[in-house]
Amino acid sequence: MKNSRFPEGFLWGGATAANQLEGAYNEGGKGLSIFDMVTFVPKDKRGNNIEMDVKSEQELEELLAGKGGDNFPKRRGIDFYHRYKEDIALFAEMGFKTFRLSISWPRIFPNGDDHEPNEEGLAFYDKVFDELLKYDIEPLVTLSHYEMPLHLVQKYNGWTDRRLVDFFVHYAETVFNRYKNKVKYWLTFNEINVSTFSPYIGSGILVDRVEHKEQAIYQALHHQFVASARAVKACHEIIPDSKIGCMLARMEVYPETCSPDDVLAALEEDQKNLFFTDVQVRGYYPSYMLSYFEKNNIHIHMLPGDEEILLQHPVDFLSFSYYMSMVASGSPDKEKEKGNFFSGIKNPYLETSDWGWQIDPKGLRITLKKMYDRYQVPLFIVENGLGAYDKVEEDGSINDDYRIEYLRAHIDQMGEAIVDGVEIMGYTSWGCIDLISAGTSEMSKRYGFIYVDQDDYGNGTLERRKKKSFDWYKQVIATNGAQL
Asked: Which residues form the active site (predicted)?
């Protein structure tokens, strides 16, 4: 322990999202969410495309009418709703200090614009938080993780409508008041930048309803920025000892060569990624983005007081997901590699995962140093992991050495960043228990230390089984990262 690079009290744990975990989509008074409408498409039919955006009114109506098939994996999750005690006991056995989960907004306000909350939904999270605290596991709670109520899409076209700011703040204040003695760590919007790639999932936008797609996206994002800042204000007032952060899907971008054109392209990609944290951490729109808006005929409508609320209520810490790095080129003709919501040029120096994601542990150290230099606020890695095919051996074991190697290399580089002077609060490995993939709705794309017996079509016993990585991560936590 004395030889550890990690500070005392470092928050080791795992991360999940309600829509990929809970199931029970039609129980306990829960309303439909945007992800409840995303169907499973086999890889041989979709190729490398991510099939999760609902783009039109007609497509949504067809899905609601049952014409999109009957395999909606995020409706079933892995049944955490009924098995949370068993799962949390396994997290405790690994020694988790924190567990990142999200509250399903439509489990609390089924339509999103309801005045009164759903008591059954509130009571469910009371039980989950109590179970975590029984084992001294700090909940780290995301308010909005791709789970906005579907009704807000249908009636308001999502975050394009300013009224959603008040709906979200009402929801946030409701859960802050309810759980103020149980939850001290909060996040506002998960991977807030995803709206630029997936307007439906990030902001609940049906793009066939808007004339200027980018205008609609950035106006919706402005509303989310304001809602986030108002949630920060409310959190500090209601829970004085709380810490509340933002969350970014972080992509470290390298220039393909030392050509100034490539370096400039990489810089501009980096700015597009860090724009979101510039607003939420620094509290104002950066000049490079105002220039981008002007060049692209984007006009953000702000109300009096918006700029003040952003400046006066920045987040306490910056959290982010990190899975891979990307490469940018000044040439527009380069073939792109697809990964999660982002695409870039193939990096010949890196290996790739089963899903073509470029594995870059040292890129995590680079991005930690860069972001801490830029913001000087505590950082929190709240998603990092390897999606892979796992095989159950005849004796029931799952030897996921590839996952151990991936995580070991990334945690090692995180430790090096701490030695370099970066302040890091904690690390929560993504999908600490196997769950439904966000991007592909697959169950076969597994991240967990715990295997769940379920396939892409919902078949299986849902039995939980420890993988080899379970005991490895348990040792990492027990030694505070000294033994990797």
From this structure: 383
Q: Scanning the structure block, which residue is given the tokens 């439906």?
A: 200
**In this structure, what CATH number is given to the domain that contains residue 303?**
3.20.20.80
CA geometry: angle 70, 73, 79, nearest 5 deg: 120
- Asked whether 132 and 170 are in contact (CB, 8 A), the reply is no
Please identify which of the residues 147, 256, 337, 383 carries the catalytic annotation.
383
DSSP 193: G
281-290 contact pairs (CB < 8 A, 24+): 281/246, 281/314, 281/315, 281/318, 281/375, 281/377, 282/314, 282/375, 283/229, 283/310, 283/311, 283/312, 283/313, 283/314, 284/310, 284/311
CA 156 from centre of chain: 24
Is 237 among the catalytic positions? no
Asked if residue 484 is part of any domain, the answer here is no
Number of domains within the chain: 1
Q: For 275, phi and psi rounded to 5 degrees? A: -55, -40
Residue 52: partners with Cβ closer than 8 Å, 6 or more residues away:
35, 38, 198, 200, 201, 438, 439, 440, 441
- Residue range 118-176, pLDDT digits in tens: 999 999 999 999 999 999 999 999 999 999 999 999 999 999 999 999 999 999 999 99
For residue 3, tell me if it sits in a domain: no
User: Which stretches within 281-327 are classed as H helix?
Assistant: 287-295, 306-312
- Percentage, residues of the chain above pLDDT 70: 96
pLDDT (tens digit per residue) in 45-59: 655 556 678 889 999
Over residues 370-395, the pLDDT tens digits come to 999 999 999 999 999 999 999 999 99
